[in-house]
Amino acid sequence: MIVKSADFVCSNTQISKLPPATKPEYAFIGRSNVGKSSLINMLTSKKGLAKTSQTPGKTQLINHFLINESWYIVDLPGYGYARISKSKKEEWNKYIRNYLEKRENLQCVFILIDSRLEPQKIDLEFCASLGERGIPFVITFTKADKQGKVKTDQNVAKFRKAMLAFFEEVPQHFITSAELQTGRDEILNFIDEVNQKFDVNDVSIYQPDQD
Ligand SMILES: Nc1nc2c(ncn2[C@@H]2O[C@H](COP(=O)(O)OP(=O)(O)OP(=O)(O)O)[C@@H](O)[C@H]2O)c(=O)[nH]1
Ligand SMILES: [Mg+2]
Predict the structure, then answer these.
(1) Residue 83 beta carbon below 6 angstroms from any ligand 1 atom
(2) Is 158 in the pocket of ligand 1 (CB under 6 A)?
(3) Whole domain around residue 60: which residue ranges?
(4) What's the pLDDT score for residue 59?
(5) Number of domains present in the structure of the chain
(6) Is residue 81, in this structure, part of any structural domain at all?
(7) Which residue intervals define the domain EngB-type G in the entry (predicted)?
(8) In whole angstroms, what is the distance from residue 92 CA to residue 86 CA?
(9) What's the N-to-C CA distance of the chain in angstroms?
(10) What is the ipTM, given to two decimal places?
(11) Cβ of 58 less than 6 Å from ligand 1
(12) Is 164 within 8 Å of 170 (Cβ atoms)?
């Protein structure tokens, strides 16, 4: 797929104010600082589209970007960031959970995992929680340029093995680097394929009951 346009649409904390659920949508989530916003900029070839930072906790809202005027990318705040207050954390968790469970046009969640790390409990639990809710997701390993291929492959294998505790079949994965554009074509092709199957008539437009 060629990305011809990528435009910021809106930032929200309320599901009732999201754009109409009439186009396929893909959400990017993962621990703070894992590289969600950088990956979105890499996929769209638009530096600065999603705001990035060396300091964790940069993205704090549900951010919608419209790609090729036909599908949405959503940049979400990171989970597991220690330096925010408990009440703020609960507030974030609530609306992110609400969004993931109720967004009817959400086709797939990209769960981002830092390829430099051994499997982390918080990531495995997050994958399991989406699995339990029947929310489709794929795994995306980030920052692959930060170490050699052997180390990346080892960590990927370890994560997939750890997932077998929760899943009979481990979901599809991508290995990426925002620096080197690794994984760009694979992810865009995947999205393109899923987009082809999207039928707006299958989406019963979400009627907000509460935020
Ligand atoms: N070397 C390298 N650095 C990366 C890569 N992806 C992200 N980074 C760096 O990691 C830091 C965090 O990136 P962000 O894209 O802001 O991370 P995020 O997951 O959106 O963070 P929050 O919004 O705070 O949750 C930045 O300093 C990026 O430059 C990558 O593929 N390679
Ligand atoms: Mg971010």
Answers:
(1) no
(2) no
(3) 6-197
(4) 67
(5) 1
(6) yes
(7) 22-197
(8) 10
(9) 35
(10) 0.99
(11) yes
(12) yes
CATH label of the domain that carries residue 132: 3.40.50.300
**Can you give the pLDDT at residue 204?**
58
- pLDDT the model gives residue 68: 97
Contacts of 41 (CB under 8 A, 6+ apart): 47, 48, 49, 50, 52, 178
Query: For residues 20 and 57, what is the distance between their CA atoms, to the nearest angstrom?
Result: 27
Alpha helices in 45-183 (DSSP H): 86-102, 121-133, 149-163
Ligand lying nearest the CA atom of residue 183: 1
For the Cβ of 59 lying below 6 angstroms from any atom of ligand 1, the answer is yes
The CA–CA distances, whole Å, from 29 to 34, 130, 142 equal: 9, 12, 12
In a domain, 203, yes or no: no
Q: Which residue's CA is the closest to the ligand 1 atom numbered 4?
A: 143
48-92: per-residue pLDDT in tens? 999 887 777 666 789 999 999 999 999 998 887 656 667 766 766
Per-residue pLDDT tens digits for 33-45: 999 999 999 999 9
Do you know the residue count of the chain? Answer: 211
Closest protein CA for atom 16 of ligand 1? 52
Residue 202 in domain: no
pTM score: 0.93
Q: Take residue 155 and report the two structure tokens written for it.
A: 């960590």
* Atom 2 of ligand 1: nearest residue by CA position: 143
Q: Which helix (H) or strand (E) holds 32?
A: none
The rounded distance, in Å, linking the Cα atoms of 64 and 74 is: 5
pLDDT of residue 208: 45
Mean pLDDT along residues 155-166: 95
For residue 34, which atom of ligand 1 is closest to its CA? 19
**Which comes out higher in pLDDT, residue 39 or 168?**
39
